[in-house]
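User: Please predict the structure of the protein below. I'd like the answer in structure-token form so I can feed it into my own downstream comparison script.

Assistant: Understood. Taking the following sequence of 263 residues as input:
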Amino acid sequence: MTEPTPASVAVVGSSDGPDAGPHAHPARTAAERKAALDAIAAEVRTCRLCPLAAGRTLAVPGEGDADTEVVFVGEGPGYNEDRQGRPFVGRAGELLVRMLATLGWRREEVFITNVVKCRPPDNRDPEPAEIAACAPYLHRQLEILDPALVVTLGRHSMGRFMPGARIGAAHGTMAAMEPATGARDALVYALYHPAAALRSTEVERQSYADVAGIPAALLEARQRRDLARSTPRSEPAARQSPEAPDAPDASQLPEASEPPTLF
């Protein structure tokens, strides 16, 4: 299938990509974030918290830029990932790279991880107990990265951040993240898993269209986060104030003239 190149997607600009803005990570330096992520990766590589550890070749903690504002979260490692210890390095990963290229982005400019860090046998779906065992690692990664936007890849990843949603209806839409996920003040944006796109030309078409909405989602996420962090947080006794409105669907957002930079 020929890769569509949306007219609204332009070359990445100095302030319009997944790179973090000047106030995105006030608590840690880039070096401190990288060191903290490396420490989590070391724990993951020796983890024995669930039965998946017994069948793995290598654990797959995740990789990418510690200074990014965009985190992609898949479901779990496959055959190639298990052999290399890196996320999305098989055919699905190649498709993800091509999709990012339509935005002028490279995989090195985002952070990529999974809800489970070891390969489930025969690439079966991860089980709830396995997702729960890995959840503290993902929570800590998101807490350290402090992204503006979390992009889910597939229904199991989406279910972690959009409970009860169905991928057929939720793909290409976004919602506010729960602070308990580790990514406070962030938005979550749902995509089909690239492996599903490899099996269906229609899902592939929809996936490219959904990816084209990521830059506008990132701009919206930045604006919401900046507003949240510029407003003094209420004291516990003042929790009766109205809740913030739900995040709009990507289809309701204005197109970004240039895809936002990642730093």
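That's the full token string. Confidence is low (pLDDT under 50) at residues 1-15, 236-245.
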